[in-house]
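Question (not urgent): is this output format expected?
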Amino acid sequence: MGKRVSKNAKPMLMIKALLLAYAATGILLLILAFLLYKMGLGESQINIGIMVTYIVSCLFGGFYMGKKIKVRRFAWGMGVGTGYAVLLMAVTFLTVHQISGDFKEMLMMFFLCFFGGTLGGILA
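Got this back:
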């Protein structure tokens, strides 16, 4: 099965996975902005693009974490997705000083991140 990761290395791997997920988010949002500029996408298309960005970013982070940890990959992927969503909500709250959007949108974002990270861990 491979070499096990030490207990002390797991938090650093989680941070690296979250950084990878946020780097993927930045790249995907730049692509989405370019498409908006060139094609004049509508609001519903942008919303779908943002949802895909959440899923793909967390999938990358969960995949990285699953490859590195090698045991209970799906659970570590869930952790990455959950961590991504919590950090996203925290940054939103700190910059806007309120939870923006409604509860339904926030819950949808959380589950998209959770699902993306879990899927990444499973596929690892």
